[in-house]
């Protein structure tokens, strides 16, 4: 059984193998799904993979997992040399493999695919809500700076900018550059004729 340590960078990963107390460098692996899968296919079903916890660690683990016995993701904050190294080198991959072999590797829990999908959905929804809130604040600030009283609107609604409301009537009273800022199309705006019965989750306040 080999213990494969992977130190993941943005474009590549440094790979080492630990076997019977000896380290063997496997070189660099391109961090593209097809090339990483080709590397994992060369491993034995009895091997164990150890990956540093980074932004792409979960995706890398999903690619490697079908080809090995187990994939562990290490907590970098609890692995001193990984957490505080100023320059990433193959030493990181060495340490990961050695710590797993000695039974002292602090691992993180790997969520299943439905949980990861839900996390991505919630993250994206929060981003959209924040973008809508920022846009509303920009428009309200423009109106306030030019002594124009903003129209009242529901808390969950993004400001609608057009000729039919108070914001739309600022075209002749606000500088051209400020008016252009207020005409930005709201993120996630509903199609014409669509009526929202309730406020989106998390958009209040």
Topology:
Layout: E1 3-8, E2 12-19, E3 22-30, H1 33-41, E4 48-52, H2 57-64, E5 70-74, H3 80-84, H4 90-102, H5 113-145, H6 176-182
Parallel strand pairs: 1-4, 4-5
Antiparallel strand pairs: 1-2, 2-3
Helix pairs in contact: 5-6
Task: Explain this structure.
The chain is 37% helix and 16% strand. With 205 residues, the protein is of the alpha/beta class. It has two domains: 100 residues, ATPase, nucleotide binding domain (Nucleotidyltransferase, domain 5), CATH 3.30.420.40; 70 residues, no CATH class. A five-stranded mixed sheet has the order 3-2-1-4-5, with helices on both faces.
Feature tags:
Transpos_IS110; Transp_IS110-like_N; DNA binding; disordered C terminus; 205 residues; Nucleotidyltransferase, domain 5; transposase activity; Transposase; single chain; alpha/beta
- Sheet with the most strands, sense and barrel status: 5 strands, mixed
What is the chains' assembly state? single chain
CATH superfamily of the largest domain: ATPase, nucleotide binding domain
Query: How many domains would you count in the coordinates?
Result: 2
Briefly note the structural class of the backbone.
Answer: alpha/beta
Gross CATH architecture of the largest domain: 2-Layer Sandwich
Q: What is the average of the pLDDT values?
A: 73
Task: Give the termini distance in whole angstroms.
Answer: 55 Å
- At the fold tier of CATH, the topology name of the largest domain is Nucleotidyltransferase, domain 5
**Shape field:** elongated
């Amino acid at each position: 059984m080999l213990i494969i340590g992977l130190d993941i960078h943005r474009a590549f990963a440094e790979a080492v193998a630990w076997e019977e107390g000896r380290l063997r460098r496997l070189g660099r692996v391109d961090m593209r799904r097809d090339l990483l899968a080709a590397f994992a296919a060369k491993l034995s079903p009895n091997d164990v993979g150890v990956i540093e916890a980074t932004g792409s660690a979960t995706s890398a683990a999903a690619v490697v997992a079908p080809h090995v016995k187990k994939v562990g993701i290490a907590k970098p904050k609890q692995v001193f040399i990984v957490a505080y190294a100023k320059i990433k080198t193959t030493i990181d991959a060495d340490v990961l493999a050695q710590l797993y072999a000695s039974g002292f590797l602090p691992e993180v829990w790997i969520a299943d695919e439905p949980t990861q999908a839900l996390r991505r959905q919630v993250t994206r929804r929060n981003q959209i809500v924040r973008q809508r809130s920022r846009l509303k604040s920009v428009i309200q600030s423009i109106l306030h700076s030019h002594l124009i009283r903003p129209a009242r609107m529901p808390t969950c609604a993004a400001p609608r900018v057009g000729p039919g409301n108070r914001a739309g009537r600022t075209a002749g009273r606000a500088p051209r550059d400020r008016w252009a800022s207020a005409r930005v199309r709201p993120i996630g705006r509903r199609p014409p004729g669509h009526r929202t019965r309730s406020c989106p989750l998390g958009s209040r306040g």
